[in-house]
Amino acid sequence: MKLVVLGAGTSTGVPRIGNDWGDCDPTEPKNRRTRVAIMVEGDDGSRILVDTPTDLRQQFLSCDIDRVDAVLWTHDHADHCHGIDDLRPLRYGRAGPIPGYATSETVRRLRQRFGYVFAGEHGYHTICALDNLDRVRMICGMGVKHCQMPHGPAQSTAYRFDQGGKSVGYATDFSEITSDMVSLFDRVDVLVVDCLRRKPHPTHAHLEMSLELIEACRVGQGVLTHLDKSMDYATLAAETPAHVQPAYDGLEIVV
């Protein structure tokens, strides 16, 4: 399998509007972060996209992506779903809509907000066929497992992808480590983990919590994502264990 980090930034990206880089070195390209998303590619080239962030068009162009075979959503917060219309060009030439999955509550919210995407409108084709995540165990030849994570007062969906004895986990937007998360990610080869900043935050993991999850799950390689402007790439890379690295836009890992 192959993991592609499409975006590694927090909800406002880095730099923030106003050219605010915070503690991040503006001369380091890996500090320029769009909103979080990943793509997991199977051994047959099938591609699963996780989330449709507001920077999705630019991410597709930067990573030379012109096709995805399924879409999963972690939750319905704007930075994770408001780029959904950028799926439209990927619908061109397909025999049917792109399969999409989320938990029942996220399905309900997405349908309410983006009805035209899932039902078509004014003669336009349906872009994505949305279904409940509980109905599936395999997508694009990859085993897919999930659990819910606390995200402050909300929830976010964690994912694990398995194929050919290899595994990738994705845990973004969580504020507490649960036993379900530890069980889901046990011994994954690569785990991409929410890591907003060093100080605790009410709705996101901070560095200490992120490293705690990586160690609790006995992960082969940890990747820190959803990084804000306080998390300079080089500084963070120098203080993390050897098997943990900060994510950056365009990072590819072959598992």
From TrEMBL:
Gene3D superfamilies from the UniProt entry: Ribonuclease Z/Hydroxyacylglutathione hydrolase-like
* The protein's Enzyme Commission number: 3.1.4.55
Under the heading InterPro entries, the entry gives:
Metallo-B-lactamas (IPR001279), RibonucZ/Hydroxyglut_hydro (IPR036866)
Which UniProt keywords are present, listed alphabetically?
A: Hydrolase
An example Gene Ontology molecular-function term: phosphoribosyl 1,2-cyclic phosphate phosphodiesterase activity
- Metallo-beta-lactamase domain location is 47-226
Reading the lineage from the top rank, the first entry is Bacteria
- Protein name as it appears in the record: Phosphoribosyl 1,2-cyclic phosphate phosphodiesterase
The scientific name of the source species is Novosphingobium hassiacum
